[in-house]
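job 3f2a | input accepted
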Amino acid sequence: MKIVVVTGIIVLIVAGFFFMYNQGNVTGSTITGGSVIGSEDLPAESVKEFNINASRFTFNPAIIKVKEGDKVRIRVQNTDTKHGISIPDFNVRGEESVEFIATKKGNYTFYCGMYCGSGHPEMRGTFIVE
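job 3f2a | predicted structure (130 res):
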């Protein structure tokens, strides 16, 4: 019983640090638009696709802009180690790619979804829905 309680406390502490460190500013280039490609899950005529290069500890581009209602596919191209992408506000998380609909306007932070080293907490970008 003690092991379960201690394990639960450790998980809560680690989760707290993750969310605490995943706050802050973003720098980098911007992508707008995107090319239209096919998908089994999303109609070909309306998918906006973005390729992001992920390396310790940056995304390039670090800013993606879409329109509200756009169907989005983001592919992560790892350049040094395994990375991923997480956009909590859209309940999106994946290692190589994610697909979703940009349902609400605003600025949202995306994060590296896999621990990639000491700078992992600072690895983030901005997803803008206009």
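job 3f2a | The domain at 2-129 is CATH 2.60.40.420 (Immunoglobulin-like).
job 3f2a | closed
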